[in-house]
Design goal:
This protein has 506 residues and is of the alpha+beta class. Helix content is 33%, strand content 23%. The chain folds into 3 domains: 16-150, no CATH class; 160-250, PDZ domain (Pdz3 Domain), CATH 2.30.42; 259-503, 2-enoyl-CoA Hydratase, Chain A, domain 1 (Alpha-Beta Complex). A hairpin with a 5-residue loop joins strand 20 and strand 21. Helix 3 runs parallel beside helix 8 and helix 4 crosses helix 8.
Length: 506
């Protein structure tokens, strides 16, 4: 019987040995097996994890971040699969478990970042595609997978590589994108770029460039295929609206000016086209308004069709130019304390006072929606067109130790009424959806925008059924409708939004 006396002590030690096996030194494993610059990669991955978990508008745990990244390994090589099984993280190749890791605490970025590298270390010997990927390729895939699980706007951009082919007249498609698995997902259409003159849209996913599939291309090869001499063509295969489609886009340089205008001497109306809100938009708008005063303009048509946004600060300053002082213009909010802001209109020595028509369509987004929405709410403009895109979230950009940058959704903006256009967009006072110039006398004026601003989901969906989103860039109906209303003061005033200032949030 005495020989069994040591068993309780042995059983007491078993959890310790099990724990030792369950918690390997992941960092040591990564350093010894990964054959990658592990410390450098750890700094970048850990920094990304901390930024996302601390600042993302959508709450994300370190566990969520890490699992999104390791799952993306299957987009490099389908035979590599990562799973979470209870408290364990499993890494498999050809359906066989390579390694089982005990999961760290949900919000421990340091340990989850180490685990990501340990998973890479285990996977690479079993996958030539994963082994062939350098650290920047891996950042592109891993980090964009994590950001892609947050929303369609957050993305990672690699530092400019030195291996780009030299060009005499460099040009491109005018898109921003992120690499998600076997696709390049378009995250932005650059104003005045080649893509802005096509039907390419945010969210479209490119699967091949000039017949070469994305999975077979490195980041430098992708850049060299998208770039080229001005006037040359790029053939794209993509998923758009749930279907495989093709597009041929002619490369072009991007124009620097975001504000252009045309003055109609006959009617004394000035049309101002704002293609994006950039660092030069406010200065360009001020110069244009000086021309409007010099020419004694009778009204302004501000064309925001196809304007996908840009710098929110520029849109706020642009709106401030038109509004009386001491009005709440915008509020921003998010989980991080640095997102809590509001902006009050300032005194303007020469505030432009004109009847204004703002033209919008389905591609009017982000800061452009804000500009249209705040002038509409304060009855300083009528809005003509179709409901806009519906993006009022704000991205912060952060530089990582890799030299790359992440654009992370961390805040949301609200109009003075408290309404945020996210998912809904701005609803026009005069809807032109499915209409042509022949229908100009049958357009309906909608002055009560409260059902859209403060209504139920059902009310908003009904509004979209009556007036669906459409791309109307350069459609003459909106311009002619604006002209008719701006030249008839009574007609214009009767089309301004009815929205009681008493409902505005202070």
């Amino acid at each position: 019987m005495r020989r069994f006396l040591f068993l309780p002590a042995l059983f007491a030690l078993l959890p310790f040995f099990a724990q030792a096996r369950d918690n390997p030194d992941w960092w040591a494993v990564a350093l010894s097996k990964a054959q990658l610059p592990a410390e450098y990669m750890f700094d970048t991955i850990n920094t990304t994890c901390r930024l996302i978990t601390e600042k993302s508008l959508k709450p994300v745990s370190a566990k969520d971040f890490a699992f999104s990244t390791v799952k993306s390994l299957s987009t490099i090589d389908q035979k590599i699969v990562a799973r979470i099984d209870g408290k364990r993280v499993l890494i498999l190749a050809d359906d066989k478990i390579l390694k089982s890791f005990r999961a760290p605490e949900d919000n421990n970025c340091t340990e989850w970042s180490k685990l990501i590298l340990a998973v890479l270390a285990e996977a690479r010997p079993h996958s030539q595609k994963t082994k062939d990927a350098d650290e920047e390729e891996l950042f592109n895939i891993l980090i964009n997978a994590a950001l892609g699980s947050i929303d369609s706007y957050s993305h990672y951009i690699s530092p400019d590589p030195a291996e780009l082919e030299p060009l005499k007249k460099p040009a491109g498609l005018g898109i921003s994108y992120r690499r998600i698995g076997k696709y390049l997902e378009i995250t932005d259409i650059i104003p005045n770029g080649a893509a802005s003159h096509t039907d390419l849209a945010i969210g479209d996913r490119i699967s091949a460039i000039n017949g070469k599939t994305i999975t077979d291309l490195s980041r430098v090869q992708i850049l060299n295929l998208l770039r080229g001499e001005a006037g040359t063509e790029v053939f794209l295969t993509l998923r758009k609206d749930g279907k495989v489609q093709t597009r041929t886009v002619t490369r072009a340089p991007v124009s620097a000016s975001s504000v252009t205008y045309f003055f109609d001497d006959k009617d004394s109306l000035m049309t101002i086209k704002i293609s994006a809100f950039t660092e030069k938009t406010v200065s360009g708008l001020k110069a244009t308004l000086k021309q409007a005063r010099r020419k004694n303009a009778a009204g302004l048509i501000i064309d925001l069709r196809g304007n996908t946004g840009g710098l929110l600060k520029e849109a706020v300053l642009a709106a401030d130019m038109f509004l009386p002082e001491d009005l709440l213009i915008i509020k921003t909010a998010g989980r991080h304390k640095d997102t809590q802001h509001q902006y009050i209109s300032t005194f303007q020595k020469r505030r432009p006072v004109y009847p204004i028509a703002v033209l919008i369509d389905a591609q009017t987004a982000s800061s452009a929606e804000f500009f249209a929405g705040v002038l509409q709410e304060y009855r300083h403009a009528i809005v003509i067109g179709t409901p806009s895109y519906g993006k009022s979230v704000i991205q912060a950009n952060e530089t990582l130790p890799s030299g790359g940058e992440i654009y992370l959704t961390w805040a949301q903006y609200y109009l003075p009424s408290g309404f945020s256009p996210q998912g809904y967009g701005i609803y026009p006072n005069i809807c032109t959806s499915n209409r042509t110039l022949r229908d100009i006398d049958r357009l309906i004026v909608q002055t009560n925008i409260e059902p859209w601003r403060k209504g139920t989901e059902a009310e908003r969906q009904k509004g979209l059924e009556i007036c669906p989103r459409q791309t109307r860039k350069d459609n003459p109906l909106e311009n002619e409708t604006a002209r008719l209303f701006l030249l008839d003061q009574e007609r214009y005033e009767n089309a301004l939004s009815y929205f009681s200032l008493d409902t505005m949030q202070n």
